[in-house]
Amino acid sequence: MNRYIYMDNSATTQVKQEVLDEMLPYFNINYGNPSSIYTLGSKSKNAIEIARERVAKAIGANTNEIFFTAGGSESDNWALKGIAYANRKKGNHIITSKIEHHAILHTCQYLEKEGFKVTYLDVDKYGTVDLEQLKNSITDDTILISIMFANNEIGTIQPIKEIGRIAKEKGIYFHTDAVQAIGHVKIDVDDLNIDLLSMSAHKFYGPKGVGALYIRKGVKIDSLIAGGAQERNRRAGTENVPGIVGMGKAIELAYENLEESNAKLIKLRDRMISKIFDRIDYVRLNGHPTNRLPGNVNVCFEFIEGESLLLSLDMEGIAASSGSACTSGSLEPSHVLLAIGLPHEIAHGSLRLSLGDFNTEEEVDYVVDKLVEIVSRLRAMSPLYEKIKEVK
Q: Which CATH superfamily includes the segment(s) 258-391?
């Protein structure tokens, strides 16, 4: 193997050189504690505030509405638990969807054990939530609606503006997990009526271990971590200065080059989908055909198993992911694929290829060539596929 092709950018991205360059001084030169009053500490504090301004600008927020966290999962936990506990006297009902990230689903399950009620909305075959079901699910006790901006597996973008409008009309807080959308979709929190928004730097070419939660001014929310007075008394703990600096630079770069990057990714995405469908039979595209993240390709190959496909791709120097949870020790396929109506046996044959800024047309063509070979080889071992061929 003389090459390595990375097509799992929805899982994480490499840190861009410009981001790394801006981070490095805060490890060994400007390493002061931001809470200190001397010059070295003030430099760190100032760097955090510059990053805060960059993050706020990217989503049309005010700087005092941005709170840095350790990543998307923490931001999701904070949004749900913080709203739930702070507004418990007002109501105990939360609405979310069946295809959320586990940071949302598992937090909702935890809150159910704490006495809260949760409605999990259905989605259609493309993974889009049902707005009528959303409206009908609202009760006098509903305090929060949490719907992800774009799905991490199948890439479908939700009708966020309509959901925000519904929430605002009913006086309900609206949170969106925008971890996959930031850096790929233009977001204005005021225009979309978003009250809380989660993001994570490593999804848009920033460092791992740092994220942010946007909290609209006036939102009643409890703090998640008690201790010091960092993040305006909302999130204790000495700040991850290099990470925050990197996040600020990464989000600035993402939105400076948004249209150019998206145009390239859409071209690569559509090229890959077209070639896969032209050369491989019994394949399904998961997610909305057009209203999806620009770099997301999620397909199911019938008569094969996703984990075998992933391992075979890895042997060819290709990094991708599967909707099947087999690699995490579970025999259950993705909850997202089941929610859009796929039967277990087809959902097990899923593959997600998520393209990024560093991918090329040559890589797309190479991966499709290898997919043709691998799918053919794996299907040759499938008695079900042999029966289908006999019928044809």
A: Aspartate Aminotransferase, domain 1 (3.90.1150.10)
More confident of the two residues 326 and 2: 2
Q: Which amino acid is at 365?
A: D
Sheet strand arrangement including 142-146: 66-69, 211-215, 196-200, 173-177, 142-146, 93-97, 117-121
- Closest to 155 (Cα-Cα) out of 323, 341, 365: 323
Report how far residue 158's alpha carbon sits from residue 76's, in angstroms, rounded to the nearest whole number.
Answer: 17
Tell me the pLDDT tens digit for each residue of 30-69: 999 999 999 999 999 999 999 999 999 999 999 999 999 9
Q: Residue 334 in contact with residue 350, Cβ under 8 Å?
A: yes
17-256 under CATH 2.40.30.30, yes or no: no
| DSSP for residue 287 | S
The strand ranges marked E within 184-246 are 196-200, 211-215
**Tokens 């959303």 identify what position?**
134
Q: Which residues are catalytic?
A: 326
SS3 content of the chain, % helix, strand, coil (to 5): 45, 15, 40
- Give the model confidence (pLDDT) of 350-369 as tens digits: 999 999 999 999 999 999 99
User: What does the chain come to in residues?
Assistant: 392
Cα–Cα distances (Å) from 267 to 11, 250, 271, 320, 360, in that order, read 21, 23, 6, 19, 10
Tokens read off for 105: 């689903």
Do 371 and 299 touch, CB atoms closer than 8 A? Answer: no
